[in-house]
Amino acid sequence: MAFSSTFFVFSLFSVLALINANGQLLDDKFYKRTCPSLRGMVRSTMARAVKDEKRMGASILRLFFHDCFVNGCDASILLDDTPTFTGEKNAFPNRNSVRGFEVIDTIKSKVEAKCKGTVSCADILALAARDAVVLLGGPSWKVELGRRDSRTASQSAANSQLPPFFVDLPVLISMFAAKGLDARDMTALSGAHTIGLAGCGTFQRRVTNESNIDPQFASLRQSTCRISNSRAPLDDGSEESFDNGFYRNLVARRGLLHSDQELFNGGSQDSLVKKYSENQKEFENDFVAAMIKMGRIDPLTGNEGEIRLNCGVVN
């Protein structure tokens, strides 16, 4: 069978995308021999956590996103502050909003009991994020593994590299491009907001001062914010199910965050948002591809970093 040069180049790029600077390869079978029960331990713990609180699925997915966007998928977001560095947990985009650390710690304890010093916190977080999506009705995918954990974290990097909720589309595109993710990846990954909640501080200005919003929806969310410390669903109507409702809301001008509605506001992503709103399968396919791509952002492999015994502290 003959293959076109385009196919060859694409295939070669796909392989090279998994390889870091040290020539190490991420592989979904990485722990097949060293910790064969890994996936079962992650899945059972996540199933319990999501059963107890469905919102936890969204929180774990967000934790993975916020980890990968700051110096790569290295579990740096899980590190507590130390006398030598200020970690990412209390950065502006994370403070009082990232959660689920105890779920990852529970998984890590189980894994250490079975496979001591073998599985990184970074890989546990990647698997847990995939399971969070599946447990809430979303698609599954093979999670590439073999990452190692960082020995440091950076609050300043978290403050500068995580996309804020108040920025416009060109800034969003630029911030995702800086991580090797194109505009389609960005639009698909934003669909993670089909699950979870947001605090009033992130959307109060939008629902009171912006014109590209359904008036009835704006009024509803203004009333939400009259109650102190209140939260609202990012996907109005199906915040506990991983579906394409987020995009249907954008088309109806019912996006909760300014940065979300920017995806459908007379700009370059309007047609893609419309397509996702009408075709859940296309959204899911693109979301999976973008999650795999995001999981390849600057992993530590080989002799880099370490395998933390406790996800919150370096060894």
UniProtKB/TrEMBL annotation:
Cofactor binding remark: Binds 1 heme b (iron(II)-protoporphyrin IX) group per subunit.
UniProt: substrate binding residues: P163
SUPFAM superfamilies: Heme-dependent peroxidases
Molecular function in Gene Ontology: heme binding; lactoperoxidase activity; metal ion binding
Annotated Ca(2+) 1 binding sites: D67, V70, G72, D74, S76, E88
EC number: 1.11.1.7
Record domain Plant heme peroxidase family profile: where: 25-315
Keywords tagged on the record: Calcium, Disulfide bond, Glycoprotein, Heme, Hydrogen peroxide, Iron, Metal-binding, Oxidoreductase, Peroxidase, Secreted, Signal
Record-given protein name: Peroxidase
Species for this entry: Asparagus officinalis (Garden asparagus)
